[in-house]
Design goal:
6 helices; single chain; about 200 residues; Methyltransferase, Cobalt-precorrin-4 Transmethylase, Domain 2; alpha+beta; about 15% strand; five-stranded mixed sheet
Length: about 200
């Protein structure tokens, strides 16, 4: 449904005294196009509440058995997407974000994987940076493709993945050396434990 048609169904349902549920996949907090719906409902004076879902980002990280932030490797996760039919602000291009070499999770990128990989490398990630693609995270059809920026394009194409997938990039995907967290360090004082 387009926005006008969707709003018509919602407004008519609410005015008829019905409980209306708009089901959305994942968590619509990002790339969900939900703000325009909420703004329209606010204008109509219709009260609503959101029930958060499990994002494919979190499902994908779980499928990879990886923590996206590890001491001494990355403490930042960049969630982004490449420019496609919908533009991205120039300051938020993948190439410009890549300079940080933080953990990056790229939505809507598998149809443009060759360009995404090129932008990541031109932005600063070395070719041997781990890169893993999760297709349909948490679904029965889930597939995981593992590689590096040097070979992920060919591997994703060989797997026939063209959409409904996330691209994970960063050193945390292959953590050979990271510092242990302070959280479990017996010498470290926390709000719940006095250090030795």
């Amino acid at each position: 449904m387009g926005l006008p048609e969707m709003l018509k169904v919602i407004v008519e349902g609410v005015k008829a005294g019905k409980l209306v549920a708009r089901v959305h996949d994942g968590d619509p907090s990002f790339y969900g196009a939900i703000q325009e719906v909420m703004t329209a409902l606010d204008k109509e004076g219709i009260e609503y509440f959101r029930i958060p879902g499990v994002s494919c980002l979190l499902g994908g990280a779980a499928a990879l058995n990886r923590e996206l932030t590890l001491p001494n490797l990355s403490q930042t996760v960049i969630i982004t997407r490449p420019e496609g039919r919908t533009p991205v602000p120039e300051a938020e291009s993948i190439r410009k974000l890549a300079v940080h070499q933080a953990t990056m999770v790229i939505f809507l990128g598998t149809p443009h994987i060759a360009r995404v990989v090129e932008d990541l490398q031109k932005g600063g990630y070395p070719k041997d940076t781990p890169c893993q693609v999760v297709y349909k995270a948490t679904w029965p059809e889930q597939k995981i493709v593992k590689g590096t920026l040097a070979d992920i394009d060919a591997k994703v194409k060989a797997a026939g993945i063209t959409e409904t997938a996330l691209i994970f990039v960063g050193k945390v995907l292959d953590p050979q050396a990271y510092d242990l967290s302070k959280l479990y360090d017996p010498k470290f004082t926390t709000g719940f434990r006095k250090g030795e």
